[in-house]
Amino acid sequence: MREESRNKILLCIFLFVIILITAVSCGGEASQENTEPGEQVIEESAQTIDIPEVPVMFEDMLYPDAEFLFEIPGIGGPMIPYRFYVASGASIDQAADFYLKQLPWFDVENDEVENGFRHLTLAYTKPLDQLGEVEDPNELPQKGIELDGALMGVEVVHSSVETGFSRLILAKDAYDRGGDIPSDSTIIILDYFKNPY
Known about the structure:
Blueprint: H1 2-33, E1 67-74, E2 77-86, H2 92-102, E3 107-114, E4 117-123, H3 126-132, H4 140-147, E5 151-158, H5 167-175, E6 186-192
Helix pairs in contact: 1-3
């Protein structure tokens, strides 16, 4: 009976991952279809980017001297949590440029100036894609071990952000962590895969 319950849980997690991957893929296709007539889609085919075969772990992408603040479950649940750091000695531009240079294969979802401060969001769904490629649910625990800690997103934002989509707003509003955010500071948020198996 215990093995049957375990298999049902694994199957539910597997189905959730497939749904999440499908939603991310559809969102990417929709954004390409919404290109205005006459707009030219520019691809980075001229620049070859080496994508590592092994996932990059979030611990390897910590900003130098950044201080850990707290972690909350992400939008995808506890399987993709958000880790919050403050980079006291760095400007937003320094932190943003650091991640753009270190992670050139990540998709730039947002890189704009909002209310006078730069706001950068990077995403990389390949770890979830790898989970979706597993055909046998019984093999998911091993794949989960391989991907545990894989970096899936980065957000660099000013601590005063109040509008738009930001993981920092989620932390303040949904988790009441506003008091844990140092004022007038550069905040770095790392999304990563946390093995649920």
